[in-house]
Design a protein that fits this description.
Layout: H1 5-20, H2 25-47, H3 81-87, H4 100-122, E1 134-140, E2 145-152, E3 155-158, H5 170-175, E4 180-181, E5 187-194, E6 197-205, H6 212-220, H7 223-239, H8 249-260, E7 266-273, H9 279-293, E8 301-302, E9 307-313, H10 317-333, E10 340-346, H11 354-373
Helix pairs in contact: 1-2, 4-7, 4-9
Length: 374
């Protein structure tokens, strides 16, 4: 009852003031409502879980010594093979007529083009010029321009990633950041660029003709879109790994801190590529297949060149381990040398600050590496 002492005092004082100063049913109703809300707030605060432990802002973690105590709850991928063959022998293949190296390049290009399209849709050019019949937006990957979005008036349609059909010097001019006008003056190509960086292009089409005097005024209408594309690229640099496009190390530590104090059970998983051959391409493919299977909500994190991390629901750790085993087996069948070590830890089994959770998971990973080597 002590926790309700403040609401009782609040209500009593308010009630006395009602009779001493001025009585009103409206103010009495407000007094009762305020008291109930205050009680509810105090009850909610008192019923919350254990208080959050303050954690330091540092994002670096000191790893444990190489020799660690064996953790009985760490799944050994070799020991899963027998169960995997019995319970999941007819599982759907992870790679369906796909080469992992080619697939990796396609995934990275697809995601970059998708992010470009999302920004374009949010900041589509105004359709105020009746002379313009349609607008094509194309993404530039550093080598080629590929179609992304078609706009006709206020209607916006996704396009197949086809390459642009060029006239003689149009492509080379646009790669240098220069606008270009087709020979029949019915297509105006305007580069989307900022600070000498070309993000893509806008191709305005007309049934009439464009004139040289119209190029700069129309080009100025693309500045806002170019600025937003620059912001998106800078955001990706801060959030994602430059080699794989996976979420980076800093984002992993922030996510670990948030999930450690979550009321729900969370499993931190670390994966290490023992062999470095094609491991960046394998990481991209593994991230895509992991999300497609629904194991993670955010995908994988690139913590170090050979180490990936992710967070799973507690009940998914066995299924995820079997999935990793299948992933390695299929790569082996295609002639690729891939070996992965897996370590994991549950947040509810860790006491102290969130960095202890990371240290325990690294210890589990080290134990897995040592047991596989033995």
């Amino acid at each position: 009852m002590k926790r309700y002492l403040i609401p009782i005092i609040f209500f009593t004082v308010g009630l006395l003031l009602q009779f001493w100063l001025y009585f009103s049913w409206i103010t009495l109703g407000l007094l009762v409502s305020s008291t109930l809300l205050l009680c509810l707030l105090i009850f909610s605060v008192s019923e919350m879980g254990s208080p959050i432990v303050e954690s330091s802002d540092r994002t670096t973690v000191t790893l444990p010594e190489p020799v660690v105590v064996s953790l009985t709850d760490v799944p050994n991928l070799d020991s899963l093979q027998a169960n995997h063959e019995m319970t999941d022998s007819n599982h759907e293949p992870i790679f369906i007529d796909e080469d992992p190296i080619t697939l990796s390049a396609e995934i990275k290009a697809k995601h970059a083009r998708l992010r470009f399209s999302e920004v374009v849709k949010d900041f589509i050019l105004p359709s105020q010029n009746s002379k313009i019949s349609s607008i094509l937006y194309a993404y530039f990957d550093g080598n080629h321009f590929t179609e992304s979005i078609w706009q006709k008036g206020s209607i916006v349609i996704d396009s197949e990633p086809n390459e642009i059909e060029w006239e003689t010097s149009d492509e080379s001019n646009l790669k240098r950041g220069l606008p270009s006008l087709s020979k029949d003056n019915q297509k105006l190509y305007l580069p989307l660029m900022l600070n000498s960086q070309v993000f893509g292009l806008v191709c305005m089409q007309t049934k009439d003709q464009f004139f040289e005097s119209e190029i700069n005024p129309l080009w100025l209408t693309t500045i806002t879109l170019s600025e937003k594309l620059m912001e998106q690229r800078e955001y990706d640099k801060a959030l994602k790994d430059s080699k794989t496009g996976l979420l980076n190390r800093s984002h992993f530590y922030m996510s670990a801190k948030d999930r450690f104090y979550s009321q729900h059970s969370q499993v931190m998983v670390l994966l290490k590529f023992i062999n470095t051959s094609n491991h960046f391409e394998f990481a991209v493919c593994l991230n895509e297949k992991t999300k497609a299977k629904g194991f993670t909500d955010n995908g994988l994190f690139q913590i170090e060149d050979q180490i990936l991390g992710c967070f799973l629901p507690n009940q998914s750790i066995y299924e995820f381990s079997v999935f990793i085993q299948s992933f390695v087996e299929e790569l082996d069948q295609m002639g690729y040398d891939c070996e992965l070590a897996l370590g994991h830890s549950v947040n509810k089994n860790v006491s102290g600050k969130f960095d202890q959770w990371i240290k325990q998971t690294f210890a589990s990973l080290e134990s897995s590496i040592l047991s596989n080597a033995a």
